[in-house]
Design goal:
binds S-adenosylmethionine, globular, 5-stranded mixed beta sheet, alpha/beta, single chain, 799 residues
Length: 799
């Protein structure tokens, strides 16, 4: 007999029968089964598809009273589902900077009269890399070379000869303490405080979550998210001389997109398997966008590429004749958006100047030409007449090396309105202008051929940490990758930098400038580039070559909106894509967000703070971020997944010596299968209510979801019978709450409710179990035998 109690939102009820006999039975048998339970749980865990379980001894920072391991909502870091016990943490960072270690972060009173800092003039000494006719891009990203000795490169903790940074393993202080206010002081040269901080806040991602019911996706295959790569050299007023991305930027490789799966002439292997399948397409053969496929099963969502290949859609599209521009030229530029572009409404209007400046194809012309080429029209016109024209066959409009299709078999939602740009573009004040003379500083100018084949690391490899980050197959080396993954998953184990006066806090325009919350000091990859002596086929050039795997934008079935998935199997460490967007100063971003009718529209900014520690006191125009809301590439579709995402972001320096601007590239953190969604841990601090960007309600489905306590609808409160299934015990483990009473108390406390008394026995084992299909109501039931997880509907129908 199953007794269950349904909760509708917060209107819950408990049955008096819930505790009684079950509770007693449970408590009596609990110890008896403790050991076997543990064994079963471990077995169960191994069966899960998650790449790996979090560290065994994880603990919520804000749950010190809980003995059992848990993951979760750390206060001190935006990351951090699983928190590592102190015993697991290094006492100090391997490399420390001996600076002011004692100074605690202090809020500063804003200097209202501060003068804005103007961008520095640009010095362009030479503009373009000599063209290399016939030099095709290095092809197969994951090709056939044999990886030789893997020498793990040391972690790069400092920039350019700077002293190593300090670890931040610190006891907390109240970041918001009003008592710590002091007047803003003139900054010295460094303005750096490297003391351990209490509040380790990974402010890299500026996305902020919000409460929302969460759908457990444990049973749903997870897809990794895309990556971002960039590559520019910023040249002010880069319009004519330096070329714009425009119509001339582009589809150099479009013709190389093999329809037959053979290696393309640019060296990128076309996807194999998946593309050959006779699959059902979300788009019709003509490539028309058909937003009428609601409620189809997920199984029907298949890549549309094959059919597109089989049809003449590509030809119609444009294998279309976009002008060719040498890649080198395109790579040399960071387009600058006009200052008139405020970013808040660009996506709803076609500003010709803007388009010209960023080298975007004039969409109006493009539409005409496409309609002419394909009478069935491959464009998506949003219903509200917003000028957002997306090509379902290739959302990148031929600007990437591969086509990126778009499908929706879930609902009628149209793709968001934005301009696709394959490379970062400067918005306004962001200072990303570098002279080529300076760019050459760290290049391996005396190298020849392929640097990776050299027995000694080149100058670029030395910048990376003494060794190449890539294998001969073009994958990020395992040790380097694992270090980057660890930084995301356990940021508190790694070094953080604390600004004396944080540009982030400064941007908030509050009267009181809060102390810096800390910036994770990340590992960089330095790729070879123009000024290097090596060839264009050098293996130390991966991100700058752009996307080479087959990706697809699709509507997720789990309420996360559009997502990105791979159409081919990807090995671990493979480059997926770069996060491309507008390069903004943080001040500009804050202003943009504040002017936006809904901050939720700005869900894509990423802070480029991976090496702020080596930059001294950052000026406003040097504190940069990327915003893909209005201008971006395919990475803007990568959804967030807490903790165990299959993508990891790595800062990649290509052309710039200054680390306040770099490319953010996504690599697979594990092997990813075709059709898996690609996900990335945004690093959201779901408890940061002070964030300018409105948070979303996380539906990542990870059992380590940091937003899980707010994702009430995916949780079920289940009584754990002694013989309950191991999945329930696993959930208990994840929550880190061994005491059933504490679980219940926490559950109701989270919802500003008090735990009803008398309805259960404190000795009973009630836990939360994520149930994928439980969306609207809570089920609360006990079972006389083995635990059975069912939806309310299922149970109701049985009764
Ligand atoms: C970078 S965009 C990803 C693409 C987006 N899904 C779309 O439809 O355009 C980030 C936004 O996607 C949604 N999103 C991403 N990850 C999510 C998650 N785990 N749960 C719920 N919503 C998510 C949020 O609205 C967020 O602001």
């Amino acid at each position: 007999m199953i007794e269950f109690f349904c909760f509708d939102g917060l209107n819950y009820s408990l049955s008096a029968s819930l505790g009684g006999s079950l509770a007693t039975q449970a408590s009596e048998q609990k110890k008896k089964h403790e050991i076997t339970d543990k064994e079963e749980m471990d077995e169960e865990a191994q069966m899960h598809e998650e790449p790996e379980r979090p560290l065994k001894r994880l603990r919520l920072r804000n749950q010190n009273d809980h003995v059992s391991p848990s993951f979760g909502l750390g206060e001190t870091s935006s990351r951090g589902p699983p928190k590592v016990e102190e015993a697991d943490l290094p006492e100090t960072c391997p490399e420390q900077r001996s600076q002011d270690m004692t100074q605690s972060p202090q809020p500063l009173v804003r200097n209202k009269g501060k003068q804005p800092v103007l961008p520095k003039p640009v010095s362009i000494q030479d503009s373009f890399e000599p063209s290399q006719p016939g030099a095709a891009d290095r092809t197969e990203p994951f090709a056939t070379r044999t990886e030789s000795d893997l020498v793990p490169p040391p972690v790069r903790l400092t920039g350019k000869g700077k002293e190593p940074l300090l670890p931040q393993i610190a006891p907390g202080i109240s970041v918001r303490s009003p008592h710590a206010v002091r007047l803003k002081e003139p900054m010295g040269d460094t303005g750096i405080v490297l003391s351990p901080k209490p509040h380790v806040h990974d402010s890299r991602a500026l996305i902020k979550p919000k409460d929302e019911p969460f759908t457990d996706d444990i049973l749903q295959s997870e897809v990794p998210s895309a990556v971002i790569h960039g590559e520019p050299l910023s040249i002010e007023n880069s319009s004519s001389a330096n070329g714009s991305i425009g119509a001339s930027d582009g589809p150099e490789h479009i013709v190389s997109q093999s329809v037959d799966g053979e290696a393309r002439n640019d060296g990128v292997l076309a996807s194999s398997n998946e593309r050959r399948t006779d699959c059902k397409l979300a788009n019709n053969v003509d490539g028309n966008w058909e937003p009428t496929h609601a409620n189809k099963s997920q199984e029907t969502i298949m890549p549309a590429v094959d059919l597109l290949k089989q049809s003449n859609a590509l030809d119609a599209l444009g294998a279309r004749s976009l002008p060719h521009v040498p890649v080198d030229v395109a790579e040399s530029q960071i387009p600058r958006l006009p200052s008139s572009s405020n970013g808040t409404d660009d996506c709803t209007q076609t500003d010709k100047n803007t388009i010209e400046n960023i080298g975007e194809i004039d969409e109006e012309k493009e539409q005409n030409s496409l309609e002419h080429a394909n009478p069935h029209s491959l464009l998506v016109q949003q219903p509200d007449d917003i000028k957002s024209l997306h090509d379902a066959n290739d959302i990148a409009k031929g600007q990437e090396r591969v086509v990126i299709s778009l499908v929706n078999e879930v609902n009628n939602e149209c793709p968001p309105s934005f301009h696709y740009i394959p490379k970062n573009a400067v918005f306004q004040n962001a200072y990303v202008n570098f002279s080529l003379a300076r760019i050459g500083e760290n290049c391996c100018s005396i190298c020849l051929g392929d640097c990776l084949s050299s027995s000694t690391p080149c100058a670029c490899a030395n910048e990376t940490g003494g060794d190449f980050a890539y294998t001969l197959e073009g994958l990020v080396k395992d040790e380097f990758l694992e270090e980057c993954i660890s930084m995301n998953r356990d940021p508190q184990k790694h070094c953080h930098f604390y600004c004396k006066e944080c540009p982030l806090e400064r941007s908030k325009n509050d009267d009181i400038i809060e102390p810096c919350k800390g910036h994770l000091v990340r590992k960089f990859i330095k790729e070879c580039w123009w000024k290097c002596g090596c060839s264009k086929q050098c293996g130390n050039r991966v991100v700058q070559r752009g996307i080479s795997c087959n990706l697809q934008v699709f509507m997720t079935p789990g309420g996360k909106g559009w997502g990105l998935r791979t159409l081919e199997d990807l090995p671990k460490g493979a480059f997926v894509c770069e996060y491309v967007g507008e390069i903004l100063t943080n001040a500009e971003l804050f202003e943009r967000v504040s002017k936006s009718p809904s901050s939720e529209e700005h869900a894509y900014p990423v802070l480029l703070d991976a090496d702020w520690g080596s930059e001294g006191v950052l000026k406003d125009e040097e504190a940069l971020c990327l915003d893909a809301t209005h201008y971006g590439n395919v990475a803007r579709f990568i959804n967030h997944r807490c903790f165990d995402s299959n993508l990891v972001e790595i800062p990649v320096e290509v052309e710039t010596p200054d680390h306040h601007y770099y490319h953010l590239a996504f690599f697979t953190s594990r092997k990813v299968q075709a059709l898996e969604e690609l996900t990335w841990d945004y690093g959201i601090d779901f408890d940061d209510h002070d964030h300018p960007v409105k948070a979303f309600k996380c539906r990542c489905g990870s059992k380590f979801c940091r937003n899980i306590k707010r994702s009430s609808s995916v949780l079920c409160m289940v009584s754990v019978h002694p013989t309950t299934s191991s999945i329930a015990r696993q959930a208990l483990d994840c929550r880190g709450r061994t005491s059933p009473v504490k679980v219940l108390q926490a559950f109701f406390a989270d919802r500003q409710c008090t735990l009803p008394t008398g309805n259960y026995s404190p000795a009973d084992s009630f836990i939360f179990v994520p149930v994928t299909t439980c969306h609207c109501r809570w089920q609360f039931y006990s079972a006389g035998g083995d635990l059975q997880l069912r939806t309310v509907t299922q149970i109701e129908s049985e009764l």
